[in-house]
Amino acid sequence: MPDAGSELEKPQATxxxxxxxxxxxxxxxxxxxxxxxxxxxxxxSFYFAFQLHFVLMFVxxxxxxxxxxxxxxxxxxxxxxxxKLYRRLGVxxxxxxxxxxxxxxLMKDETVFDGTRATLASYExxxxxxxxxxxxxxxxxxxxxxxAANLGLWxxxxxxxxxxxxxxxxxxxxxxxxxxxxxxxxxxxxxxPAAN
Length: 196
What we know:
Blueprint: H1 17-41, H2 46-67, H3 80-89, H4 91-100, H5 103-106, H6 120-150, H7 154-189
């Protein structure tokens, strides 16, 4: 696992005015929607927690596309001990659950991976972007959880916390697990993901 002193990856691309304008539009629209959802459903409800996570995933996905961070730091290296821990925590069962409910097929992007060796490197890169988004969101959701806890809204803490684990923590572990498998395939085939 990365050292505690390792920094999470930050955007490294050149930020254009168009990217910042797009980011402001996404943040304002999403913030407005969440404010409205909070007034309707309240901080301690299942419905608010559910919408919070999906709106944040929408925001993260759009910001990632706008700024396109490089994500080449050592943070994204996965050690064998870390991989064993993820398997013990049930990451393989989580992957099978996503496959069973059709989520994997729904989210499949053939422009990233079409099942051929030519797109293995882009798939490996996509696991970095997915992990980066989910990890930042996992950390971000701790803020409304702390707010709810401060107000004594423990049901809200439960809903947001359990969804935070399911929607962000396990996906982070899954992306890291998948990346190890992909890197092994790339090494066997002699393709360097860093070159893409």
